[in-house]
Amino acid sequence: MGVALIVVAALLVSTAVLGAVRAVAQDDGAFEGVTTFLIVGDGVEAALEAPLAPGDTAELTVDLPAGTYQIVCPVANHETLGMTRELTVV
Fold first, then answer.
1. Rounded to whole angstroms, how far apart are CA atoms 79 and 15?
2. How does pLDDT run across 25-37, given as a tens digit for each residue?
3. Phi, psi (rounded to 5 degrees) for 9
4. What is the dihedral of CA 64, 41, 82, 31, to 10 degrees?
5. Are 1 and 19 in contact (CB under 8 A)?
6. Which domains does the chain have, with CATH numbers?
7. Claim: this prediction has a pTM higher than 0.85
8. Phi and psi, residue 7, nearest 5°
9. pLDDT tens digits for 41-76?
């Protein structure tokens, strides 16, 4: 259990263990404006309650069944700038 996420660096791991996955996000200010992240896949869609401003930190815990998920920042063009990652839960 436990997936560390630095939002502007994208996800640091690509595999997690079945069950509660805890993602901690920190916006280090590398991108202008706010950022956030969204976990989508296998019938799951979960997001931070509010976007992060530079310097902010937030946490999201999601019960993920085995499967493949996309973690993206849906703000503006952040996904095309590399703020996306595939996560496999086994």
1. 20
2. 777 777 667 778 8
3. -100, 0
4. -70
5. yes
6. 3-89 (2.60.40.420)
7. no
8. -55, -45
9. 989 999 988 888 888 888 888 888 899 998 888 888
